[in-house]
Amino acid sequence: MDRDTFSGLPPFTQALQRTLQAAKDSAHAADLLFLEAWEVHRPQDLGLTLRARQIRRANPQLAAEIEAELSDRFSKVPNLVRINTRVRQ
């Protein structure tokens, strides 16, 4: 998983769908898509985690909205479990 891996995928959350409409450029959009993918998968890779934290710090409202929306979705699927459910900013 890297920053560009998810740039071709559609956004999963409504929060990201709204935010992408105002994305400055394709690199900004790729960063936001990366953040959402990281929130879903939370890989155990220090470099990816540090990158996600940078993007979270730059977009705290979006990060909170994505996390809330994903938490709500995951809570509705009984056998689906997220790993590392809390991240410090």
How would you describe this protein?
The chain has about 90 residues and is mostly helical. The protein has one domain. Helices cover about 60% and strands about 0% of the residues. It is built from 4 helices and no strands. It starts with 13 loop residues before the first helix and ends in a 14-residue tail after the last helix. The mean pLDDT is about 80.
Q: What string gives the helices and strands in order?
A: HHHH
Low-confidence spans: pLDDT under 50, at least 5 residues?
none
Oligomeric state of the chains present here:
single chain
Give the strand content. under 5%
The portion of residues assigned to helices is 55-70%
* Structural class by helix and strand composition: mainly alpha
How many domains make up the coordinates?
A: 1
Q: Which outline best applies?
A: globular
From the N-terminal CA to the C-terminal CA, the straight-line distance is 21 Å
* Residue-averaged pLDDT: 82
SS summary, helix count:
4
| Count of distinct strands | 0
Please summarize the sheet with the most strands.
none
Radius of gyration: 12 Å
